[in-house]
Predict the 3D structure of the following.
Amino acid sequence: MSSGLKEEWDRKLKEYHQKNATVRKGEIVFAGSSLMEMFPIEKFMKELDNPYVIYNRGIGGYKTGDLLESLDICIFELEPSRIFINIGTNDLSDPDIPISQMIENYETILTQIKEKLPEAELYLMAYYPINYEAAAEEMKPCLKIRNNEKIALANREVQKLAERMDARYIDVNDNLKDGQGRLKAEYTIEGMHIKEEGYRAILDEVLKYAGEPAWH
């Protein structure tokens, strides 16, 4: 990890810790890496007339091990009733991290959440697809590793994890995909990250889960 990235993470954690002092407890939290951090859910909530309060505590660059070390600030301090998690795609980009290790870390994350917040409902989000053909040249080496076949395999493992941990696996990706199952070119920044229009395309589906009755 570069010193610049570590400084950015520390800055963001400090900012989140300060914000957490004034949040409403018992609401909804988004946690994960950049694909969660870039979801402009707080902006969307201000635009809409709905009863949901959603706080985004995603941090770009995070792997499962990084979130595990930051659960206090990213989740526990907010005492949420529902937690939407999208973590692990950066693990998938690292050829030295097997999916089994990622899932082991993810399970530890969920175990600690359930111990600390036993009443919270957990939503494990399916990883979004990528689009290699629409990718910027500098992104293509990464997307050869983190390809849609690997993402599909990882999603199956996350679904199994959700079943084991009494969490809910949700896949909101239909509106993001083109006819070949790739991330729609018009929705991606560089083949992997998603533009605001892409997040708008899945917003209704996400809010359906945010507003559903308690399920466990």
In short: The mean pLDDT is 96.
